[in-house]
From TrEMBL:
Source species of the chain: Microbacterium commune
Residue stretches spanning the membrane: none
Keyword Nuclease: no
Domain of life: Bacteria
Keyword S-adenosyl-L-methionine: no
Residue span(s) of domain Retropepsin-like aspartic endopeptidase: 11-143
Name of the featured protein: ATP-dependent zinc protease
Molecular functions per Gene Ontology: peptidase activity
PANTHER family membership: ATP-DEPENDENT ZINC PROTEASE DOMAIN-CONTAINING PROTEIN-RELATED, ZN_PROTEASE DOMAIN-CONTAINING PROTEIN
GO biological process, one term: proteolysis
InterPro entries reported in the protein's UniProt record: Asp_endopeptidase, Peptidase_aspartic_dom_sf
Keywords: Hydrolase, Protease
Pfam families: Zn_protease (PF05618)
Length: 158
């Protein structure tokens, strides 16, 4: 993981982020200083071996409340962790690494894969990613801009 060597970048409590490794330009995320590791909504998670290493294939629905534009991605498994939710429930999750574009900056992040269908955001950005030079302003939102309206609205109800 790389660390920022420049001044801090302000972020709001929620932001539109990009996941360049997955080809996802816009995904709404909650900035969560209470979470250590970032978390991504993933489904159809399948583990497999490639060249003697553990890999995982998973799919992502980038739009909340929509199954449109699903993206399938394969990557090496970075780690496995027991993660305790805010409700106290512990879940064993696969951890992968990926680039995250937040407020115009790209950082490397450890991201756990889990089902977030019942959650308000497809992704949480946790402290480990935020330590790379971000300050959170809990009174602000979308400091990095918003997905274009046609992108936000075109998939509603599908």
């Amino acid at each position: 993981m790389t660390r920022a060597s420049h001044s801090n970048t302000s972020t709001g409590w929620r932001e539109w982020v990009g996941l360049p490794d997955l080809g996802i330009e816009w995904l709404k995320a909650k900035i969560d200083t209470g979470a250590r590791t970032s978390s991504l909504h993933a489904f159809d998670v399948t583990e497999f071996e490639r060249d003697g290493e553990e890999w995982v294939r998973f799919a992502v629905h980038p739009w909340q409340d929509s199954t449109a534009d699903a993206v399938v991605h394969e990557t090496r498994v970075h780690d496995r962790r027991a993660v305790r939710s805010s409700s106290g429930h512990t879940e064993h999750r696969i951890v992968v690494t990926m680039r995250v574009r937040l407020v115009g900056r790209e950082v490397d992040a450890e991201v756990t894969l889990t089902n977030r269908d019942e959650m308000g955001f497809r992704m949480l950005i946790g402290r480990e990613a935020l330590r790379q030079g971000f300050l959170v302003d809990p009174a602000r939102s979308f400091l990095g801009g918003r997905a274009p309206r046609e992108m936000r609205n075109r998939n509603r109800g599908r």
